[in-house]
Amino acid sequence: MKNNFLQEIIVSGVLIALLVLFLNPFELWMPPILLMMMVLGLVVLFSLFASFIWRENAKDEREGLHKMMAGRIAFLAGTATLVTAIIIQSFRHELDAWLAVTLGVMILAKIVGLLYGRVKY
């Protein structure tokens, strides 16, 4: 358990670092081959991260509650960030459609997950 937690933290940290590099904060010139390698790295790291999330199992009620709270906090942080970005870009009259699509998909996934949980359990 402890080893998986450390692996998840490491993969999460590397994934965040790679996402920061996509923003090009150091004004580095991005040759196409470097961009392709970064895209491949993003796909691989996100797949690893998703596998950690998918394989999570709670051993008792307390651990289950902690995992549910973490998921709820992550969902609220993600949606709040998207809503903030939508508001800011709307005031600038340059709204990126992907922001609205992503927020919509997150909300739909939450509803589908709730319905699935009610039908299955």
Structure in words:
The structure is a single chain. By secondary structure, this protein is mainly α. It has 2 domains: 1-56; 60-121. The chain contains 4 helices and no strands. The chain has helices spanning 2-22, 32-54, 61-91, 97-120. It is globular, with a radius of gyration of 18 Å. The mean pLDDT is 89.
- Averaging pLDDT over every residue, what do you get? 89
Assign an overall shape: globular
Chain oligomer state: single chain
Q: Please, how many domains?
A: 2
Uncertain spans: none
Q: Outline the biggest β-sheet.
A: none
Number of helices: 4
How far from one another are the termini? Answer: 26 Å
Quantity of strands, as a count: 0
Helix content: over 70%
- What percentage of amino acids are in beta strands? under 5%
Order of helices and strands: HHHH
The value of Rg in angstroms is 18 Å
Structural class: mainly alpha
Secondary-structure map:
Elements: H1 2-22, H2 32-54, H3 61-91, H4 97-120
Helix pairs in contact: 1-2, 3-4
Salient structural properties:
121 residues; mainly alpha
